[in-house]
Amino acid sequence: MNKARRNPFNTVAMHGALILYTLIALFPVFVILINSFKSRRAIFREPLALPNADSFSMIGYETVMKQGDFFLYFQNSMIVTVASLSFILLFGAMAAYALSEYQFKGNLIMGLYLALGIMIPIRIGTVAILEMMVATGLVNTLWALILVYTAQGLPLAVFILSEFMRQVSDDLKNAGRIDGLSEYTIFFRLVLPLVRPAMATVAVFNMIPIWNDLWFPLILAPAEETKTLTLGSQVFIGQFVTDWNAVLSALSMAILPVLILYVIFSRQLIRGITSGAVK
Fold it and tell me: What is the value of pTM for the model shown?
């Protein structure tokens, strides 16, 4: 096994496969970015060419700024994403701690019940969710999206965090109890700092689907004041005419926050994934 790992050919092949996958994953982002700075004619004539003096144009970004309330859409997306991630991490960590730390009747059944949320897509219950939001008066509010995304992300958060919390030393927690710390203090001050890589992993896995989602904003919050960035970008897509400059510019501006957050959490994400692999 060790000899196979030290084989230079295996190392080169592995890195080559990773580089190829990275290029394939980044290619659509590259195409969107370069074409957002080109004129409409240049987009269709040479979609893979870099902008030059003849094809360079900022008309797409100018259109995005003039038509539609882009900054409102961006603000709504940020509020929904940050609030949803906060609830997912808080409630998911608390539930994972309870399932991993305390043995009670129904512990296993509760864990299996939460695991069903990973296997069953939440969109199956769209009609029931819409009826519930109408009954509670939450349609066309950001709370409707926050609650749905929180429910969507909790099963995976509990599944990942519970595995990490089982690895936290019992001696450390018992020492805290001997010192008179409450269970909440042990959880927030001793356990959570040790599972930060896992929490970063959960945050990244949930952040991208929430930020990019079009389904629930279109159904639960289609009003102008509650549109998210993804839904707001649809204003440039018509039945007969599509302003591709504006669409690509809006998508480019929507990609940047995700890339920035990924860079911030990347180190913790890698630590979380590698720690999970070792376990």
Answer: 0.82
